[in-house]
Task: inverse folding
């Protein structure tokens, strides 16, 4: 499909209503033209009536009609149609003219005042002017009444109306053409800033992620530029996250790969089978550590704010999720010498995604087991509190100094002086999952020593936080 032209679209959108208005104006103009033509020709008929009245007199007791030259001249001027006239005495004899020319239906018309009406005559519709006139005989003091009728066919009137209509249509078409030309010129001039913006975007280098300058653009284009700048900023954040992911992956894998290489080289030099097995077991632990770090990196990258993650939320019982995850981690806790327990009987419902909540609880338990150390206790607790679903993971280990609690959610951050094996990504994953669920995380001191991690989830989410 050809791309739609804005200029062509505007032309059609303007031309169709303008042509509609032109049609309406043509009808109204023709109606006015007919009224004007009727008024002009009615005056002509009335003038003919007056001229004929002036030629009517009483001589020797008889009404005499002498049609003056002025009336004849006006009859001759209507070359396009036919003209009729009639003079008849009221209630009396025909005097002159066309005897079957119809009189008006009402005969009580005032004297000397013309009456105009349309009538069917000889298969055509004619316009008639009728005047009721008194004729006086001074010698005998006699007064008699006559009707003077003049009529004409409508050809001249129609021709005049047609000429007026054609002139008006030509004028309107010229105005429509000029209007369209002005609009198209205005559109062309108005689109120049958009073309400049288009060229500016097209000329940007592939690695140029600087925002576009909207200071010289019309106000109507500023929302578009702002949206493009927001999109550019988002692309920049995504590229930065991608670069950070590659850097993090290199950082996470560099040491394990170096250790793997060294252990494999040592194993290849050994001839003693038990020593080789021990070194291969250590190598396997290193591989597991590296694999876990890669999985955490991928999970953290997937949960990043600018990642296009579509999260479908459903009704979840946080208590049931926490209980199941605690049971899954119980064997790991036993191997580490940690007493892992669970508290919570009342359902704590929220709108969330079960697999992400399982990952959140699992990372909190893993972090607590690692940093609490052997011989310690870790308790997972879930409950509804004040309209929230609350999750707590409590340990009685060494805890985290207060000044470092805001830093532990950073990637690869490790508390100084710790000897615990880990990647520093677990709490970062917890933070991102909590963000997707609009949850609040708080780190606090456990009474008697240790760390308490509290995550409060809203029961109803107003809108998804995922990007």
Result:
């Amino acid at each position: 499909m050809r791309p739609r032209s804005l200029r062509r679209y505007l032309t059609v959108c303007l031309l169709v209503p303008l042509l509609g208005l032109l049609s309406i104006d043509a009808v109204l103009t023709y109606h006015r033209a007919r009224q004007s033509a009727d008024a002009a020709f009615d005056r002509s008929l009335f003038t003919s009536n007056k001229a004929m009245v002036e030629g009517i007199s009483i001589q020797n007791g008889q009404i005499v009609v002498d049609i003056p030259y002025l009336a004849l001249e006006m009859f001759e001027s209507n070359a396009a149609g036919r003209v009729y006239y009639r003079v008849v005495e009221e209630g009396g004899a025909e005097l002159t003219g066309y005897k079957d020319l119809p009189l008006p239906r009402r005969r009580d018309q005032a004297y000397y005042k013309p009456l105009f009406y349309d009538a069917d005559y000889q298969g055509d519709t004619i316009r008639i002017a009728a005047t009721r006139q008194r004729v006086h005989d001074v010698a005998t003091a006699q007064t008699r009444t006559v009707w003077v009728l003049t009529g004409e066919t409508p050809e001249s009137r129609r021709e005049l109306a047609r000429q007026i209509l054609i002139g008006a249509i030509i004028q309107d078409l010229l105005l429509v053409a000029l209007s369209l030309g002005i609009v198209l010129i205005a559109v062309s001039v108005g689109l120049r800033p958009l073309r400049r913006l288009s060229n500016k975007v097209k000329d940007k280098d592939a690695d140029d992620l600087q925002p576009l300058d909207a200071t010289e653009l019309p106000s109507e284009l500023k929302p578009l530029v702002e949206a493009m700048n927001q999109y550019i900023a988002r692309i920049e954040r995504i590229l930065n996250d991608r670069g950070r992911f590659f850097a993090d992956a290199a950082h996470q894998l560099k040491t394990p790969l170096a250790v793997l290489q060294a252990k494999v080289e040592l194993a290849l030099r050994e001839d003693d089978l038990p020593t080789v097995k021990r070194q291969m077991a250590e190598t396997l632990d290193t591989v597991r550590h590296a694999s876990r770090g890669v999985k955490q990196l991928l999970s953290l990258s997937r949960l990043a704010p600018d990642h296009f993650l579509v999260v479908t939320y459903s009704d979840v019982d946080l208590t049931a999720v926490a209980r199941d995850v605690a049971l899954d981690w119980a064997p790991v806790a036993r191997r580490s010498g940690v007493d892992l327990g669970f508290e919570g009987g009342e359902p704590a419902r929220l709108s969330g995604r079960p697999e992400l909540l399982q990952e959140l609880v699992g990372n909190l338990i893993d972090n607590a087991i690692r940093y609490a150390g052997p011989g310690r206790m870790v308790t997972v607790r879930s409950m509804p509190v004040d309209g929230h679903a609350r999750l707590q993971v409590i340990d009685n280990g060494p805890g985290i100094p207060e000044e470092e609690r805001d830093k532990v959610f950073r990637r690869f951050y490790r508390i100084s002086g710790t000897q615990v094996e880990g990647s520093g990504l677990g709490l970062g994953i917890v933070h991102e999952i909590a963000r997707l669920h609009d949850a609040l995380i708080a780190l606090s001191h456990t009474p008697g020593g240790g760390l308490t991690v509290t995550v409060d989830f809203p029961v109803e989410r107003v809108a998804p936080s995922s990007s």
Observations:
- Residues 75 and 282 are 128 Å apart (CA to CA).
- Residues 314-458 form a domain with the Heat Shock Protein 90 fold (CATH 3.30.565.10).
- Residues 462-467 have pLDDT under 50 and may be disordered.
- The longest strand covers residues 124-137.
